[in-house]
Amino acid sequence: MSVGTIFDIKKFAIHDGPGVRTTVFFKGCPLGCWLCHNPESQSFEPELMVRDGRCNRCGDCIEACAQGAVSLNEKTVHIDRNRCDLCGACADVCLAEAIEVAGREMTVAEVMHEIEKDVVYYDESGGGVTFSGGEPLSQAEFLLELLRSCKRCGIRTALDTCAHADSGVFRKVAVYVDLFLFDLKIMDDQRHREFTGVGVDPIHQNLRWLVERGAAVIVRFPLLPGINDDEENIRAMGGFLAALDNRPPVDILPYHGAGVAKYDRLGREARMREMPPPSAEAIEAVARRLAGFGLHVSIRGERL
Ligand code: SF4
Ligand code: SF4
């Protein structure tokens, strides 16, 4: 049975598909968006996250660290990430939960054990499980086993994906997925490469294939001011989706800046720190523009 790397399992999620859901977050993503709101999802390796505000400077973690990587300053704990070997001993002894290791290996059975605890809520609400990330398709065999296990248990599944994956892998996985939450950011190949590090071809090919075979798809458009809210991108996206045989609905997810604190916890620079969220008027204008292409458009799940 395969083992995968998971960085979180969120219970009673209500924004990752219909009904009450369990969202399983896979660690690692082939894209490198510098605006990612889950930066701990990007690396395939475990990472240490530190919540400065929780640290009471008790010093227990200093004694626990065999690498001498932990010290205290006048306010909080400091980790020397060059010395740290990610053993997790500091997180284990920290009663204040100021230190956390993001990312741990889990077997399919362990993940299914968590998922199956809430079957009664899925049944009552029309919910299920959502595999998210990171990019679940980057751990395709693990994902496939989880999807098959859910099918055997009668649990409905959703896949939150950027779909930057080999078409053979994508199609093998797709037959077990009940709903796709398909992330579409920037239509122009060069601009997409500049923002994410990868091109658009496999993403667009996989989306075309999905909608042509009648799969249930919601396109999720993260609206990023100054990055993808320009007329050229909106027009290209609207035209691309309107030309598909089965036009998928579009859900706009406005940038909100909540991920900035996570960059701090990871000890990484947050390049978007000063970036404001889009105004309500700007969000509405983009929604109306996309609706003008004959698309069903919602904003954070609320229909126009
Ligand atoms: S064990 Fe936790 S609370 Fe104590 S110093 Fe270390 S990080 Fe701070
Ligand atoms: S994870 Fe291990 S090596 Fe890294 S700071 Fe904590 S105790 Fe030290």
From the structure above, extract its key features.
single chain; 304 residues; alpha/beta; TIM Barrel; Alpha-Beta Plaits; two-stranded antiparallel ribbon; binds iron/sulfur cluster
Structure description:
The protein is of the alpha/beta class and 304 residues long. It folds into two domains: 3-44 and 104-303, Aldolase class I (TIM Barrel, Alpha-Beta Barrel); 47-101, Alpha-Beta Plaits, CATH 3.30.70. Helices cover 33% and strands 22% of the residues. The protein has a ten-stranded mixed β-sheet. Strands 3-6 form a two-stranded antiparallel sheet. A two-stranded antiparallel sheet has the order 4-5. β8 (128-132), α5 and β9 (157-161) form a beta-alpha-beta unit. The longest helix is centred in the middle third of the chain and has 14 residues, at 140-153. It is globular. The model has no long low-confidence stretch (mean pLDDT 96). It binds iron/sulfur cluster (2 copies). The site of one iron/sulfur cluster has 14 residues, from α2. One iron/sulfur cluster is lined by residues 48, 64-65, 67, 69-70, 79, 84-90.
